[in-house]
Design goal:
With 433 residues, this protein is α/β, with parallel strands linked by helices. It is built from 17 helices and 6 strands. The protein folds into 2 domains: 140 residues, D-Maltodextrin-Binding Protein, domain 2 (3-Layer(aba) Sandwich); 226 residues, no CATH class. Helix 1 crosses helix 10 and helix 3 crosses helix 6.
Length: 433
């Protein structure tokens, strides 16, 4: 056992204690996460004030007084949250722009050319030409045209456009003798808060984020298990091609070498999943959304990580022991990669229907079991506890069988040289005693 631990420490040291791994796996995510937190605290949306004269050509005579109210911050209602979000979704931030515009009324559309010249000369910030049918709410082609100089800020233009739109709505309401504030209050969509009932009470739930949670868990599990398995593959091939394997086998048995390498890379994977998992949980706490994760789900993640890693490690160690370089490994690793890509194909049907036929059946097919089950146990409709226990038995049984098969291949292939074996030859190695 002591020799196994020495190999495990050597494997861990040469993988996790390198500058590339420390920076790429630990420091780089911390830098990104810290930058986002610091940025959200330090960087605040800038608030600008736009002043100038805006000419309005209004044949109806109703848009101008309505615009006077909307451009006056002491009289107009504040933009709704939906309007501000809509502006942000279009890439603008008009809600952060304060308008201090002086309005100039004109009724003759023939003066448009003169007013445009004043815009070019810098006397006016812009000109608004109002169509005659803008007050008809059933007219689909009604519009207002805003003319500004080429250097006008897009965010400032967006703020003026939104204010003019609100002015048109106000003018329509005034024309029908309607109360604008009451009308807008009636048309505003109420916010709906969703709260999940638990055994001990109730908890708020972010529905959209809850939908992404199973996929996030599966991706984290897959990346960490595959990355650790890939490290195991490359280190095994390098040691074999450099003849280091022969030196190691002079002191320990093939089974001790394989066990040490598997344990060492398992600790690497556990370190990786701990770092990324901690960053994710920290982000949820920062945004006050920690309630969407149940502590039991973290336990499931660790259990299924060990299960997934052993399955992936069995495939990678088998392939690494049978070949002498990475180029030879490509032919054997392709079937394994196709199998490992199946969880990416299943994440949509499983996350949408965690207790459906596809999810239930694939839960009992190693090596898909850990990846499918982590999505099922973290879904809004978790799998029945009986199925969780049954898949645990199937999954761990599959992991043990795969490691046993890996041991038989590793024992034969670790000292094999020359032409790489075919998949059929690997199956024949399993019969060697």
């Amino acid at each position: 056992m002591w020799k196994v631990m020495i190999v495990a420490w050597r494997e861990f040291k040469h993988t996790a204690l390198t500058k590339a791994f420390i920076f790429g796996t630990i420091f780089f995510p911390l830098i990104i996460w810290g930058g986002m937190i610091v940025g959200s605290i330090v960087v605040r949306p800038s608030e600008t004030t736009v002043s100038g004269t805006l000419a309005i050509i209004d044949p109806s005579g109703l848009i101008y007084p309505a615009a006077g109210i909307e451009f006056d911050p002491d009289q107009a209602e504040r933009p709704t949250l939906g309007e501000l979000v809509g502006e942000a979704g279009r890439g603008t931030f008009g809600g952060m722009v304060h308008l201090e515009m002086t309005l100039e009324a004109h009724h003759d559309p023939e003066r448009l050319g003169q007013l445009q010249d004043r815009v070019r000369q810098g006397e006016l910030y812009g000109v608004v030409s109002v169509d005659a049918d803008v007050l008809n709410p059933r007219q689909h082609h009604d519009r207002m045209t805003l003319y500004v100089e080429p250097s006008a800020n897009p965010d400032h233009i967006s703020a003026i456009q939104r204010t003019l739109q609100r002015a048109a709505v106000r003018a329509r309401a005034m024309q029908q003798d309607l109360d604008v504030a009451e009308m807008r209050a009636m048309l505003s969509e109420p916010r709906i808060a969703t709260r999940r009932l638990t055994d001990v009470g109730e908890a708020a739930a972010g529905v959209e984020l809850q939908k992404m949670l199973p996929i996030a868990f599966m991706v984290l599990l897959w990346i960490c298990a595959f990355a650790s398995g890939n490290y195991l593959l490359t280190t095994t091939i390098e040691e074999k091609s450099n003849r280091v394997m022969e030196v190691l086998l002079s002191a320990i048995s093939p089974m001790q070498l394989m066990a040490g390498k598997v344990i060492g890379q398992c600790v690497v994977g556990l370190l990786t999943i701990s770092v990324y998992g901690a960053l994710g949980i920290g982000a949820l706490f920062y945004f006050s959304m920690e309630n969407i994760i149940n502590p039991v789900e973290i336990i499931y993640l660790i259990v299924y990580f060990f299960m997934a890693y052993l399955m992936v490690a069995a495939m990678m160690a088998s392939i690494g022991s049978a070949v002498s370089d990475l180029q030879e490994a490509h032919a054997l690793i392709t079937p394994a990669m196709l199998l490992l890509m199946v969880p990416w194909i299943l994440f949509i049907p499983v996350s949408q229907n965690p207790n459906g036929t596809i999810a239930t059946v694939t839960s009992f097919i190693p090596p898909l079991t850990p990846f499918v089950m982590i999505m099922r146990v973290t879904a809004s409709e978790p799998a029945p506890f009986v199925q969780i226990l049954a898949t645990m038995v199937v999954g761990w049984g599959g992991a043990i069988v795969m490691m046993w098969l890996c041991a038989r291949i590793f024992r034969v292939g670790v000292l094999m040289t020359g032409k790489p074996p075919s998949p059929l030859e690997l199956l024949r190695w399993l019969r060697y005693s």
